[in-house]
């Protein structure tokens, strides 16, 4: 792997997982030493992150991790509704129904994953990631899949704002199960409607949690 790719992957992971929270200054000398790369590949990595909207150049500060405002969250969810509703419609028509039947069975049992003591809810998020991956594989549209992949980078950052609320996570698990079930039955309209409900509930929770 090229040095610039290694630096990009490391910084992207740190930003998405909030090890580098919004407002963090990515000083070239410091980051070059931390990541073990020279400044030229680091600059290439920072340019890629800026193109994705994860960092931005600020006068007098250099490159910083971008903030996440509620206005940005609303814009992300507007785009998310457009992309995800179409994706589940296509997956309902083109997908392997047995794949989604299995995901529905697992998602129906997801509340059990959310009762353990793991504060990261890693097993649940891994299961949701598998649902996303199955939808991407089923839609048969590489451009839509790439757009969803780019969007999800920002959604993982936004997830932290929901504060892993146990009640909301249980609701989301049921909503994901409903989506998987609709796709498994080949019902595009129900899959789209269930996705709309999930997104509306998720946005409402984010806004209520982060309104002072």
Task: Give a written overview of the molecule.
- The chain is mostly helical and 212 residues long.
- It is built from 10 helices and 2 strands.
- The chain has 2 domains: 3-65, Arc Repressor Mutant, subunit A (Orthogonal Bundle), CATH 1.10.10; 70-209, Four Helix Bundle (Hemerythrin (Met), subunit A) (Up-down Bundle).
- It has a two-stranded antiparallel ribbon.
Give the % helix.
over 70%
CATH topology of the largest domain: Four Helix Bundle (Hemerythrin (Met), subunit A)
What low-confidence regions span 5 or more consecutive residues with pLDDT below 50? Answer: none
Please, what is the CATH homologous superfamily of the largest domain? GntR ligand-binding domain-like
Succession of helices and strands = HHHEEHHHHHHH
Distance between the termini: 45 Å
Tally of distinct domains: 2
**Shape summary:** globular
Rg is: 19 Å
Biggest sheet character? 2 strands, antiparallel
CATH level 1 class label of the largest domain: Mainly Alpha
CATH architecture of the largest domain: Up-down Bundle
Please list the strands of the largest sheet in the order they lie side by side.
1-2
Our count of helices gives 10
Task: Give me the count of strands.
Answer: 2
Q: What is the averaged pLDDT score?
A: 91
Structure class: mainly alpha
């Amino acid at each position: 792997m090229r040095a610039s790719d290694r630096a990009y992957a490391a910084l992207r992971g740190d930003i998405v997982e909030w090890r580098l929270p919004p407002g963090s200054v990515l000083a070239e000398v410091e980051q070059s030493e931390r990541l073990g790369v020279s400044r030229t590949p680091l600059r290439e990595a920072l340019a890629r992150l800026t193109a994705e909207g994860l960092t931005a150049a600020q006068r007098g500060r250099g490159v910083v991790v971008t903030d996440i405002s509620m206005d940005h969250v609303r814009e992300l969810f507007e785009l998310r509704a457009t992309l995800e509703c179409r994706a589940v419609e296509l997956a309902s028509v083109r997908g392997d129904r047995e794949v989604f039947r299995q995901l529905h069975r697992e998602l129906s049992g997801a509340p059990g994953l959310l009762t353990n003591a793991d504060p990261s809810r890693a097993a649940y998020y891994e299961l949701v990631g598998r649902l996303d991956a199955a939808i991407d594989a089923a839609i048969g549209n590489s451009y839509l899949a790439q757009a969803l992949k780019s969007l999800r980078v920002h959604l993982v950052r936004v997830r932290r704002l929901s504060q892993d609320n146990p009640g909301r996570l249980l609701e989301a698990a049921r909503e994901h199960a409903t989506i998987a079930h609709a796709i498994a039955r080949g019902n595009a309209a129900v899959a789209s409607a269930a996705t709309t409900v999930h997104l509306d509930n998720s946005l409402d929770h984010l806004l209520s949690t982060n309104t002072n």
